[in-house]
Amino acid sequence: QIRSDKDKEIHIRYSITGVGADQPPMEVFSIDPVSGRMYVTRPMDREERASYHLRAHAVDMNGNKVENPIDLYIYVIDMNDNRPEFINQVYNGSVDEGSKPGTYVMTVTANDADDSTTANGMVRYRIVTQTPQSPSQNMFTINSETGDIVTVAAGLDREKVQQYIVIVQATDMEGNLNYGLSNTATAIITVTDVNDNPPEFTTSTVSTNSGARTHSVLVIPGSEGGARWDTPRHAPAWAHSLPHGLLSAPGSRDTMQHFAAAVDYEMNRAFMLTVMVSNQAPLASGIQMSFQSTAGVTISVTDVNEAPYFPTNHKLIRLEEGVPTGTVLTTFSAVDPDRFMQQAVRYSKLSDPANWLNINATNGQITTAAVLDRESDYIKNNVYEATFLAADNGIPPASGTGTLQIYLIDINDNAPELLPKEAQICEKPNLNVINITAADADIDPNVGPFVFELPSVPSAVRKNWTITRLNGDYAQLSLRIMYLEAGVYDVPIIVTDSGNPPLYNTSVIKVKVCPCDENGDCTTIGAVAAAGLGTGAIIAILICIIILLTMVLLFVVWMKRREKERHTKQLLIDPEDDVRDNILKYDEEGGGEEDQDYDLSQLQQPETMDHVLNKTPGVRRVDERPIGAEPQYPIRPVIPHPGDIGDFINEGLRAADNDPTAPPYDSLLVFDYEGSGSTAGSVSSLNSSSSGDQDYDYLNDWGPRFKKLADMYGGGEED
């Protein structure tokens, strides 16, 4: 808490500044402006920042300084919140076999981020385990403060144990395992060999293939009696009285010697060698034996078919691009090293990405199969690369490859292209301009500086537009006139490069001219107008859309009204659907046809039966059931006889034909009762005889419904 002794006289407000208050890290500390109590706002980390320097201020209510600022130093007290961390998780060290106790091996180091002046950061080391525990479980010890590992017991023998794995633990709080934090690392200790075994080897006569490099020549065997061998570090072999560089001496104990260079049957068919092997290091004390051994070796070389090779590989040639097809570029021939074999070499393409080249199969002459283009995607850094194969006809056949690199010199064969292709400008000048440039697929000196020009035809181009040169690669396109109507204009521009001879290209840039705001940006209405549609055209389009929508709405309303009328007049048939002259459908239920063209009242049935009882004999309505005795139909026997079936059917048919009460009562149509009031008599009074005393030809004029009657009673001849 900070406090001014003037707080009894006036009201004082306190504040703090500095790192941790109003400087990063921000608001680590806060202060009560009235009481002056300071608080920490979040957990502190000493490893992040160990101290803070703040300044406290006291002012009155008007912000006037009451006291001079005072310095506040805040120190973060360390807590043991960090484990020791080893620099490496695995340490590698070595020690010679037979070393005396106390021999230094290696040092392991662990760091603790806590305060090293307190126990929180004081690290102590100890060995936890040792593997293997031979010949003793404590072969090594470690300095608890420095981390130095030394031998503590004798008996290190590489031939028995070649490596030890030691687990080392680092603990802070000065190594207190109850309160300290710990971490572990692995120390790998390799027991190195000392020279206590002399070398010995046997000789043999061997043969090798011509051109061989890795063929085995010598073997260094173990001595008799199963003697142990030292490691290669103490037993490297070296060749003596040999052709320079003929054999390599890898120096491994039981491995084989190899050729250091390829042998050639055509050069040497056999080698007579004297080989000596020795130790570079002297034998260990107490060993009374010779430190070297010699042997004679005969090496025979066997001839084999060797692959042809290209003497110059990779071969680089330079020429200009665009050479015509069939041009001879070079001869890429191979050499067959088999001088004693009469073999022919044939050439072929192995890789030709663009298929630009041909090779003569006999002599390796390279010619062009197409025009070479430096701007092709197959060219990398102006170089085109193709691979060819040379194969002999030996047994077995052998082949070699060669790479031909063609460096293409650029010629001016690409005209420049204008960039950009589209742009936007205000309809009034001096508001903005269009920066233009050009792109050329060629390279220097066949590119810039470029010349930008406006063509003289059409004349409106130079009248409306002007070009201002900025530098060799850029220019500005702007309006020449004070106002240009909004729209999209195709402005042709001639771009010429600096090649020899120069090439030019007339490119068209689409410029959208539009009204702009005060910032030089196209307005929304202006952008639409610039697209080629004026205000009148936009209004006309909107009116057409409204009319189209209105027509669609009226059509929908008409369809709904028509559907409603169809539901209301389900029994009525539209004139266009009149079926009077068509085939009738009788599989629909309903009240019958409503025909307004005929008076059906004449067919109405009277309410009484007097007209039936009082009518003259022989005249009756065909739609009434006749009054009279009904015929008797035969009774089917209970047990019918097969011979009686035909008689039974015939009698029933005869009775039905003579029954006047059986439907259809000699009529083609039965009409339902239509009500009383008919002024016409029954149509049954018509005599159906065809005596010819009445003319029925008028039935032909009544339409197709009376065609049947016209055919029956009309003027047609009887059959």
Quick structural summary:
Its main location: membrane. Helices cover 10% and strands 29% of the residues. With 719 residues, it is mostly beta strands.
Kindly describe this structure.
The protein contains 6 helices and 35 strands. The protein is mainly beta and 719 residues long. Among the domains are: 12-75, Cadherins (Immunoglobulin-like); 85-192, Cadherins (Immunoglobulin-like, Sandwich), CATH 2.60.40; 205-220 and 237-282 and 290-302, Cadherins (Immunoglobulin-like, Sandwich); 315-409, Immunoglobulin-like; 417-514, Immunoglobulin-like, CATH 2.60.40.60. Strands 7-14-13-10 form a 4-stranded mixed β-sheet, with no helix packed on it. Strands 21-27-26-23 form a 4-stranded mixed β-sheet, with no helix packed on it. Strands 28-30-33-32 form a 4-stranded antiparallel β-sheet. Strand 4 (51-60) and strand 5 (65-75) form a beta hairpin. It starts with 11 loop residues before the first strand and ends in a 6-residue tail after the last helix. Mean pLDDT is 78; it is low at 220-228, 233-243 and 618-622. The chain crosses the membrane at residues 525-558. It holds the Pfam family Cadherin. Keywords: Calcium, Cell adhesion, Cell membrane, Cleavage on pair of basic residues, Glycoprotein, Membrane, Metal-binding, Repeat, Signal, Transmembrane, Transmembrane helix. Residues 4-86, 87-201, 263-310, 311-418, 417-525 form the Cadherin domain. GO terms for molecular function: beta-catenin binding; cadherin binding; calcium ion binding.
